[in-house]
């Protein structure tokens, strides 16, 4: 007996856009190949966590798995802070 296609929602990272996709096999992870240009391709990973469903309970929701953004290294100054140990004589440049 063939399996009936299941509609699922692919929810974009900003949660404002989504796409409906029909799956013929029960999966929890989708790897999407996206053609960026004629020669370049990238991949997107979608995951359904804990069987999340929409409000009508008919579609499972898959959310894009984003790679963590790089953490900036803390600043490491080359020199320590300059500390003046004696008072400096201030003179006017006027003659």
Identify low-pLDDT runs: none
Number of helices: 0
Computed Rg: 29 Å
Average pLDDT taken over every residue: 82
Q: How helical, in percent, are the residues?
A: under 10%
Order of helices and strands: EEEEE
Topology (SSEs and partners):
Blueprint: E1 6-11, E2 18-23, E3 29-35, E4 41-47, E5 60-64
Parallel strand pairs: 1-5
Antiparallel strand pairs: 1-2, 3-4, 4-5
Short summary:
The chain has about 100 residues and is an all-beta fold. The chain has strands at about 5-10, 20-25, 30-35, 40-45, 60-65.
Q: Could you explain the architecture of this structure?
A:
The termini are far apart. A hairpin with a 6-residue loop joins strand 1 (6-11) and strand 2 (18-23). The protein is mostly beta strands and 95 residues long. The chain is elongated and about 95 Å long. It is 0% helix and 33% strand. It has a 5-stranded mixed β-sheet with strand order 2-1-5-4-3, with no helix packed on it. The chain has a domain at 6-64. The model has no long low-confidence stretch (mean pLDDT 82). The protein has strands at residues 6-11, 18-23, 29-35, 41-47, 60-64.
Name a few traits of the molecule.
single chain; 95 residues; mainly beta
